[in-house]
């Protein structure tokens, strides 16, 4: 089973669009094809963006967003990183994604922010940083 860390921007893109790679990837996760990994920081980000009304316009209702988040929680695995890899990324706010992925043995971090996540000071050869489309190509 492919273990993935899904950046918040992937979840937002999936819920804001009627199609696209982000939406398809979330479908795959909810169908059990991939296992999402969660940590406290990432989960709090998910909850935070779900509650921001200016992000959503008419794309989804609050109830729909929380239902998707609950389904995502039921399909994933909680991971507690015990080691902080600092300094690593230019944006301190992204370091938790790499730490979560390393702690959980993830195959990839999936994000629309590939550039910033690929250029860290530390290298983890087993860990890929992919866009949703690249992830779907790698693991259909």
How would you characterize the overall build of this protein?
There is one protein chain. This protein has helices at 8-16, 21-30, 40-50, 62-75, 95-104, 114-118, 132-138, and strands at 2-6, 34-38, 77-78, 108-110, 128-130. The chain has 140 residues and is α/β, with parallel strands linked by helices. The protein has a five-stranded parallel β-sheet, with helices on both faces. β4 (108-110), α6 (114-118) and β5 form a beta-alpha-beta unit. α1 packs across α2 and α2 (21-30) packs across α7. The longest helix has 14 residues, at 62-75. It starts with a strand and ends with a helix.
Q: Short description, anyone?
A:
The protein is α/β, with parallel strands linked by helices and 140 residues long.
Features:
alpha/beta, 5-stranded parallel beta sheet
**SSE pattern, N- to C-terminal:** EHHEHHEHEHEH
Strand coverage percent: 5-15%
Structural class comes to alpha/beta
Share of helix among residues? 40-55%
Provide the residue-averaged pLDDT: 85
Task: Give start-end ranges of low-pLDDT stretches.
Answer: none
The major sheet is characterized as:
5 strands, parallel
Span between N and C termini?
12 Å
Broad shape: globular
Output the radius of gyration.
14 Å
């Amino acid at each position: 089973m492919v273990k993935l860390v899904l950046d918040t921007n992937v979840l937002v893109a999936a819920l804001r669009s009627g199609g696209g790679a982000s939406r398809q990837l979330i479908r795959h996760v909810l169908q059990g094809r991939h296992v999402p990994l969660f940590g406290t920081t990432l989960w709090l980000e998910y909850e935070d963006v779900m509650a921001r009304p200016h992000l959503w316009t008419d794309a989804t209702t609050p109830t729909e967003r929380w239902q998707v988040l609950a389904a995502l929680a039921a399909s994933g695995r909680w991971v507690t990183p015990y080691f902080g890899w600092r300094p690593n990324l230019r944006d301190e706010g992204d370091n938790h994604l790499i730490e979560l992925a390393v702690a959980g043995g993830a195959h990839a971090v999936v994000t629309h922010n590939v550039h910033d996540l690929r250029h860290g000071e530390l290298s983890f050869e087993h860990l890929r940083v992919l866009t949703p489309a690249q992830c779907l190509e790698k693991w259909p």
